[in-house]
Specification:
single chain, Rossmann fold, two-stranded antiparallel sheet
Length: 702
């Protein structure tokens, strides 16, 4: 999900709607308004215009959330959180997002909600918990929750029946839009009486639906208005589905007509594009088109260019810098409606093959120098990957689903998407899987459970993974299951048992070869943690540095900062706060690169302990405030095997409160909580930031 993207074209015929909606919202009698209407009627554009009209009345801003690419209703709150700059929030996502929103006077715009209606209760919950927030939803169906006001968005007003001049067209919103788009695509077209009459009739046939007008007028590049009208007649003369409103039948007819004007190869590619979620790269389109519709790779780009020209497909740069081919949601839904039969079976299979390969390639990259680039790539493709998992689970291909889940677990860990990963892993485990894959899905379920704080469930999953690995003499599976059992014991402070598991995992990790190197580095670190908790800092450092060396050799940021965190704890135990600061600052920078907010929270808290030793109470307070915000954002501890001396943080907090005074301390904590993660990193690394006015002075005077 992302911000709502609105084409930079003029809005016609909605002044009355904007005025009525603005008056409704300004009256203060409702804070949940749903714009309903058929696909393509202009709900998104109307929401954008209303947002612009009301912007000055919401000092904390307009928060736009596009939901078209969100696959799962459980992802709605996460999408809102990301729009707020939060990470995915785990099982307490609703409370975390509400905590961020409750003090804001904002307009929250949720676009394309119709496929996520089971999340309506979450929206109602936010309205209830956030009294200053107004929610504006666009959806084909109302949410049907208490307090909702439904506003039906109708088609644009039509021109008079007998159009004889361009002015007759232009005085109506639908006619003005049609003329505007016609001039844009065919500037040399003469507005003769015959052309004007044909355009007027065309406007009537298109029922004033903006998207239908946009699609139809795109063909004026190559057809005269009369030819366009003649071809439109072929499909609009056939009734649509009888239980749909007439304007939706017309929209379907328009899309049927646009589809009918495509060549067979263009039709095949357009239909196949319906299998994607959130768009796709050229390479993905090429592979799926070849695997499902037998379209030669050399032709795909040319066909895509023609679909873009016909306004059936759009192209835009993605967040990872790669160009993505997408469709407006009504068009995408139409493509999906045509994707049936054997073509659908082949397209789903080819789509899953593409995203399985991508996920498995990324899983290798996560442990090396290009870790950050792979995380960004998978974030862009996450809607497609989740769709591939869900379809293969529903389509009796649990092996493909299991392989994708195993490849995705570390991404979900780093991004805090614990519920999404755990639910799919546990669903997959209800299917029949080969033992080796079953064990790996148990590992994925274990890590998601552990990160979410369910240590008991994680222990069971890890034990089962170890059993399957030992039975099959699968060293990778056995070593990861054994080390996981150690993590569960460590979280329960059963140090002797944890140490035994970690030691036993080391020879297994060596036996596993390249697949065990990542685990070997972490097992050394975790064994060092046990030694540190036993009061043996020198022994701990020796173990942890072995793990750190292995991590640095591979460019593995995650294993590196896990080692650095534990080295910082050892340095603090030895009274070497300067060394602890060095370790912490490196780890903070690495956490920022991977966007691992859960890890960053731990580092900021430990840096606050170091700042307390340096007599910097203001920095202590700001860092602790920033860490609290991050913890609330993630909604889970995640790194339950980080076991710092909590008394040191409590002492740092108390000393800072005493030095600053309660009010100044609270102001500094609030200033830290207000920092975005990137700014918290900059502050931690020594940057001068303009904190909130009530935050007090810094520790350097002034």
């Amino acid at each position: 999900a992302g911000g709502v993207v609105v084409p930079p074209t003029r809005l016609y015929g909605r002044d009355g709607d904007v005025a009525a909606l603005a008056s409704l919202i300004r009256a203060g009698t409702c804070r949940l308004v749903t714009l309903t209407g058929p696909g393509g009627v202009g709900k998104t554009r109307l929401a954008a215009a209303l947002s612009e009209e009301l912007a000055a009345e919401y000092p904390d801003g307009i928060i736009q959330v596009g939901l078209a690419s969100v696959v799962d209703p459980s992802g709605v709150v996460d999408a809102i959180g990301r729009a707020l700059g939060l990470a995915s929030n785990g099982p307490d996502a609703l409370d975390v997002v509400a905590a961020q929103l409750c003090s804001l006077r904002s307009l929250l715009v949720l676009d394309n909600f119709e496929h996520l209606l089971s999340a309506a209760g979450d929206v109602a919950g936010l309205v209830s918990m956030c009294p200053k927030v107004t929610v504006l939803v666009s959806s084909r169906s109302p949410l049907r929750v208490r307090g909702e006001v439904e506003y039906a968005v109708g088609p644009l007003a039509l021109p008079v029946r007998e159009v004889t001049t361009a002015r007759d067209l232009a005085v109506s919103p639908s006619g003005a839009l049609l003329l505007d788009r016609a001039r844009a695509v065919a500037p040399a077209m003469e507005l003769t009486p015959d052309n004007v009459r044909a355009l007027g009739t065309l406007c009537q046939r298109l029922a004033g639906i903006p998207l239908a007008i946009e699609l139809a007028t795109a063909r004026l590049r190559v057809l005269s208005p009369q030819d366009l009208l003649d071809r439109l007649d072929d499909v609009t003369s056939v009734p649509g589905v009888r239980d749909l409103p007439q304007r939706q039948q017309t929209m379907r007819a328009t899309l049927d007509w646009s589809y009918g004007l495509l060549s067979p190869d263009q039709q095949a590619l357009f239909t196949v594009l319906g299998v994607f979620r959130g768009g796709a790269t050229l390479e993905a389109v090429e592979e799926v088109a070849a695997g499902s519709a037998d379209i030669p790779t050399a032709q795909t780009l040319e066909l895509l260019e023609l679909l873009v020209e016909h306004s059936m497909v759009t192209v835009r740069p993605g967040d990872d810098g790669r160009y993505r081919y997408t469709m407006l949601e009504p068009v995408a839904q139409y493509a999906r409606s045509r994707l049936v039969g054997e073509l659908a079976v082949r397209a789903v299979r080819a789509h899953a093959k593409v995203y399985l390969a991508l996920a498995e390639k990324a899983a290798i990259g996560y442990a090396h120098w290009d870790q950050v680039q792979w995380l960004a790539r998978i974030q862009a493709e996450e809607p497609n990957i989740l769709a591939a998992i869900d379809r293969t689970l529903d389509g009796a291909d649990p092996e493909t689903a299991g392989r994708i889940i195993w490849a995705m677990w570390l991404y979900w860990w780093l991004r805090g998407q614990l519920t999404i990963g755990r639910r799919r892993a546990e669903q997959c485990l209800n299917c029949s899987l080969p033992p080796a894959l079953e064990g790996r899905v148990h590992l994925a379920a274990a890590t998601m459970s552990y990160a979410a704080g369910d240590v008991a469930a994680s222990s069971d999953h890890w034990a089962e993974a170890f059993r399957l690995g030992a039975e099959r003499r699968d060293a990778e599976l056995a070593c990861k299951g054994r080390a996981g059992m150690g993590l569960a014991a460590l979280a329960a402070h059963r140090l002797d048992i944890a140490a035994e598991h970690f030691r036993e995992s080391l020879p297994l990790s060596v036996e596993a070869g390249a697949e065990g190197v990542w685990l070997r580095s972490l097992s050394h670190v975790w064994l060092g943690t046990v030694l540190l908790l036993r009061g043996d800092p020198p022994g701990a450092v020796a173990e942890i540095e072995q793990g750190l060396q292995l991590a640095r050799q591979r460019g593995d940021r995650l294993s590196t900062y896990v080692a650095l965190y534990n080295l910082s704890q050892a340095a603090i135990a030895n009274g070497d706060h300067a060394l602890a600061r060095t370790h912490l600052e490196e780890g903070i920078a690495l956490s920022d690169q991977t966007e691992d907010l859960a890890n960053l929270a731990y580092f900021l808290e430990t840096l606050a302990v170091v700042e307390a030793a340096a007599d910097a109470p203001h920095r202590v307070a700001v860092l602790l405030g920033a860490a609290r915000f991050l913890r609330e954002t993630v909604g889970a501890d995640v790194y339950a095997y980080y076991l710092p001396d909590e008394s040191l943080q409590a002492a740092a907090e108390e000393a800072a409160r005493t030095a600053l005074g309660k009010d100044a301390y609270d102001d500094a904590v609030d200033a830290g909580r207000a920092l975005q993660p990137s700014d918290a990193v900059r502050f931690a690394l020594g940057a001068d930031l303009a904190l909130s006015q009530n935050a007090g002075c810094d520790d350097r005077g002034g």
